[in-house]
C-alpha cells in the first residue's frame, strides 16, 4: 500500500520543487536567483530546506549563512557531500521487507513526522512506500554510515536496477532531481529508452562526484 507524494500539503511543497526544477531546465532565462534576496546565482549554489513544508529553496551563500547559522533557524542548509557506500550490506530478503515495489528508492528521516520515509520515483512524482521500523533499524545496525545521515537534508539513495546495485548517501535535493528527470522524460507505460538513458546519466554523474565510503576493517 502506498500514497502519492503530492497528496498532502507537505508533499505538494516537494512537488513544487520538481516543477521549479523543470522550469529551470527549460527556461531561456540566463541565470537563477536566490529565492530569499533575488541575488543572481551561479549554476552550483546552495539549497535550503524548510523542514515543516518540505520545501527546497535556491539560495546565495550569504542567505544560507544568515538563515542556517543559529539554533532554531527557519531553514536547514542542504549539505553537498556525496558518499558512495561501497560495502553496503543488505540482503534480498531485507530489501523485500522494506516493501518498495521497484528497485529505485530513497530513504530519509523526517524530524517533523519523527519517522523514516521510503520514497520511490514514478512518472507522477515521488511516491511513499510503507516502511516498517524494524526492517530499517536492522539495516542501520549493519551499516554504520547510516547513523551519520543528517535528518531531513540527507538520504540513502538506492539503485538496484539491472545486474549491479549502488548505494549512496546524498543531499535530499539530488533525490528530487532524479524524480524530476523521470517525470520529464517518461513516455508511455514502460518509460521509453530516453528515460533510462537519463537515469543512467544521472548515476554516472553521481558516481563521478562521490567519495567512496568503506566499512572499517577490524583486526
From TrEMBL:
Q: Which domain of life is it from?
A: Bacteria
Q: Which Pfam families match?
A: DUF5947
Q: Return the protein name.
A: Uncharacterized protein
